[in-house]
Amino acid sequence: MHIDWLIAGAGAGVGFIVGLTGMGGGALMTPILVLVFGIQPLAAVSSDLVASMVMKPIGGGVHLRRGTVNLRLVKWLVMGSVPSAFLSVWVLESLSDPARVNEIVQYAVGCALLLASVALVAKGAFSGRASSATSPVDTIVIHPTRTVLIGAFGGVVVGLTSVGSGSLMLVLLLILYPTLTASSLVGTDLVQAIPLVTSAALGHIIFGEVKFDLTASLLIGAIPGVYLGARVSSRSPDRVIRPVLAVVLIVSGLKMLKVPTPVVGSVAGLLVVVAIVMMVRSRPTATDAEQVRAAD
Predict the structure, then answer these.
(1) Which alpha helices (DSSP H) does the chain contain, by range?
(2) 154: domain range?
């Protein structure tokens, strides 16, 4: 088996960001594979999903041991996500023109990245409300129909693009279940993503094209990267990380949608200015620092 150490390095960087922020790795890894390494979109999505199938249980197991997973909520999400993920892969792979399939996947990834950038900003807007929530993880009222629909939506997006299990679905859960604590939301989302990603990955293995050398290269870098990112996450300023990631997702999405480079450059320049303003405005004040020290 041939290991591409450049891809392993990229996997380590993406894994670090995943451990640092909790966002899904597909939103970063898939566009890197396509735009930087020239991997065909379908092969990039397939290989990234198989790598995620190996990595997801690591984070999910931690939350299960801590008791921050609502298994009733997981059940309803999985009822929607698992069949929709598998069927979306089957429908995609049933198309007879490989070039057309790759074009569909590339545009789908581009749209998913733009949605993920919106989700990232929305997650920041809702995080204060979620972090102040105090409802025990198993006492919330479940909304079965809406939860299954969230799962089905996430299954289709993940099956086609490998993006969404750690970004889009988490924000939808934040909106539907605002009384869950942040840790319970992340834990529930991580555990439901295990069967979701497994279903999508198996669909690609059965019907599609998975490059196992590529998957192995990703895992060699990503597993230690996730561990290191998780280790330093408590010391990382969210006000800096979130705007930077949003800019990266938007620019990557526009490139995947084949927007002309001058337009992408102009948008990127504008977004950088906006991100800097956001970081400056959200900088902790002296009063905030005094309050933190007093709380300590």
Answers:
(1) 5-21, 26-35, 41-66, 71-93, 98-131, 144-161, 168-176, 182-207, 212-232, 238-256, 261-281, 286-295
(2) 5-283
Count of beta carbons in the 10 Å neighbourhood of residue 286:
7
In a domain, 122, yes or no: yes
* Contact between residue 232 and residue 118 where contact means Cβ atoms under 8 Å apart: no
Which residues on neighbouring strands pair with residue 180, listed in sequence order?
A: 135
Of 50, 126, 138, 34, the C-alpha closest to 89 is 50
Which pLDDT tens digit goes with each residue over 257-293? 989 988 888 888 888 888 787 767 766 554 444 443 4
Longest dimension (CA), the chain: 65
Contacts of 127 (CB under 8 A, 6+ apart): 182
Residue 296 lies in a domain: no
d(CA 132, CA 16): 27
Residue 70 · residue 184 · CB < 8 Å:
yes
Cα separation, 49 vs 159, in Å, equals 8
pLDDT digits 0-9 by tens, 100-121: 888 889 999 999 888 888 877 7
In a domain, 291, yes or no: no
Amino acid at 228: L
Total number of domains in the chain: 1
Separation of alpha carbons 272 and 293, rounded Å: 32
Lowest-pLDDT range, 92-106, 120-134, 152-166?
120-134
The one-character DSSP state at 97 is -
Indicate the SS3 state at residue 6.
Answer: helix
